[in-house]
């Protein structure tokens, strides 16, 4: 991916090297944990940490089952390091990919007569406090709809390659684009509606709806990928990197790796085949209307 030398976003908070005061909670986007019938609660903390990124949420929420969007003000980060923008290559990459998502969604929203409200991406190391609660680096990237921020410990990119078997810069870009996809869903009302509807659903019903939410975010990531292709900045093998990443974090693949069998009723992110299909669908069409997972037979 030819990302160097392109515009970099200023919507970055660099909290690396800062400390958090306590582990209090907040409100955020709640995903069903699939605890009944052998869902995510499957054998220990390692499993929780492995699956937490695939869910895009704080692993503490998987253990407690609660990241509700009920108010909950953002708690303050404590520390002495001023916010800034590092000049290291990984940070430059993140800022560039975020800028590309801003350009993509800015044009799409403008075409509909609306203004895209850009999210902030928070870089952290070790642990971080958000309006959705607290997370450690083991939780992986996540989006908090309460403060409209994406949280990322860039050390996760190494884990993505070594633990999930998904290497390459476009695989990393897919991670960011997926979380930004959740931001788009928040702006368009998808996340608030899901959080409201799931309150009256059974766990299996909420899981099924969650799959549609997550697959749409994958499709939105594909739309972003299409825009990068149209700019001529993709290289040979880039698309395959993203598709491989989508495959490696499918619910069925993760469950096979962690517990040796799958429990379809507990799926809340989509199978590997579904994640690949919906990313590819967004990539091939580049149109938001082709990402209507809620009308699809999934």
Walk me through what this model shows:
It is a single chain. With 298 residues, the chain is of the alpha/beta class. The protein has ten helices and six strands; from the N terminus they run E-H-H-H-E-E-E-E-E-H-H-H-H-H-H-H. Strand 5 (142-144) and strand 6 (149-152) form a beta hairpin. Helix 5 (169-188) packs across helix 8 (238-248). It is globular, with a radius of gyration of 18 Å.
Topology readout:
Blueprint lengths: L11 E3 L30 H11 L3 H6 L24 H23 L8 E4 L3 E4 L2 E4 L5 E3 L4 E4 L3 H7 L6 H20 L1 H8 L5 H28 L7 H11 L2 H9 L12 H14 L13
Parallel strand pairs: 1-2, 2-6
Antiparallel strand pairs: 3-4, 5-6
Helix pairs in contact: 1-9, 3-5, 3-7, 5-7, 5-8, 6-7, 7-10, 8-10
Task: Give short descriptive properties of this protein.
46% helix; two-stranded antiparallel sheet; 298 residues; 4-stranded mixed beta sheet; alpha/beta; 10 helices; 7% strand
């Amino acid at each position: 991916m030819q990302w160097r030398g392109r515009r970099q976003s200023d919507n970055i908070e660099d909290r690396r090297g800062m400390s958090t005061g306590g582990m209090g909670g907040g409100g955020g986007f709640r995903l069903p944990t699939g605890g009944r019938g052998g869902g995510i609660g499957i054998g220990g903390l390692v499993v929780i940490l492995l699956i937490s990124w695939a869910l895009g949420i704080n692993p503490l929420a998987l253990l407690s089952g609660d990241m509700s969007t009920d108010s909950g003000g953002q708690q303050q980060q404590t520390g002495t390091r001023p916010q800034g923008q590092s000049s290291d290559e990984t940070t430059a990459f993140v800022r560039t990919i975020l800028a590309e998502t801003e350009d993509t969604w800015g044009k799409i929203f403008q075409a509909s007569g609306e203004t895209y409200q850009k999210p902030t991406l928070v870089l952290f190391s070790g642990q971080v406090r958000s309006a959705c609660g607290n997370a450690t680096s083991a939780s992986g990237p996540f989006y908090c709809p309460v403060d409209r921020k994406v949280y990322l410990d860039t050390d996760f990119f190494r884990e993505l390659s070594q633990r999930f078997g998904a290497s390459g810069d476009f695989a990393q870009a897919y991670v960011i684009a997926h979380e930004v996809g959740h931001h788009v869903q928040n702006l368009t009302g998808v996340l608030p509606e899901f959080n409201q509807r799931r309150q009256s659903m059974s766990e299996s019903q909420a899981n099924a709806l969650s799959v549609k939410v997550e697959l749409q975010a994958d499709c939105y990531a594909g739309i972003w990928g299409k825009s990068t292709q149209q700019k001529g900045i993709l290289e040979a093998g880039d698309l395959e990197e993203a598709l491989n990443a989508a495959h490696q974090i499918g619910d069925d693949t993760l469950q096979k790796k962690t517990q040796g069998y799958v429990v379809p009723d507990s799926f809340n992110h989509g199978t590997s085949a579904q994640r690949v299909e919906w990313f590819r669908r967004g990539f091939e069409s580049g149109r938001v209307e082709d990402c209507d997972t809620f009308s699809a037979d999934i």
